[in-house]
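2024-03-11 09:14:02 DEBUG pipeline.ingest accepted 1 chain
2024-03-11 09:14:02 DEBUG pipeline.ingest length=200
2024-03-11 09:14:03 DEBUG pipeline.predict start
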Amino acid sequence: MGLLKSAFILGFQKSPILLVDGFASKIPGGILPIAVFTEGLSIINGLVGGDGFSLDLLSANFKPAPGTTLINQEISSYPFLNQSTAANAVIQKPNRITMHMTRPVTTKNGGMVGKLPLFMALKLALEEHNSSGGTYTVMTPSYVYTGCLLRSVVDITGFNDEVKQVQYEWAFEFEQPLLMVSELDTALSDLMSKFTKGTP
């Protein structure tokens, strides 16, 4: 497998969620990939067993869900004086990002016995990260969302006769707030400049 293909798989399919500050503030750089929690046993078993690190050892797979927003706006419904006024009345809303994680139990890395401690550790780490003010960077092939907040992690496992496992597919729902503190001054100064010049 080529280096670029491996980087793409690792960044966008195996570990596209990065914990920033919060829980990760205790490590150098302040960024921690989610694979540390979803694949901890896989990585350790591979290294201890002499297999080295391989993407084939990682059993969690992520993909962006349909409905993830790139631009999310609301347009006012009252009559406008002209097109320029209408364009300035557009209200920007937070982007919503949903990532589906498929993490089936495998015959390696503890199997069914390893699943419970893995998800307990993941839940505790995410709760600690959220309560300590951490944010998330969510990487998709189309866009990298920074400064996101985690809204929920929901079991979305479907029922069918082919798959006998339960709780193997999860939806991570994120929201990207409208303004970061660094962007607030720019937005306000642009608005104040328009008021000063008398432009809509």
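2024-03-11 09:14:41 DEBUG pipeline.report The helical segments are 3-14, 35-38, 40-48, 83-88, 111-131, 181-197.
2024-03-11 09:14:41 DEBUG pipeline.predict end
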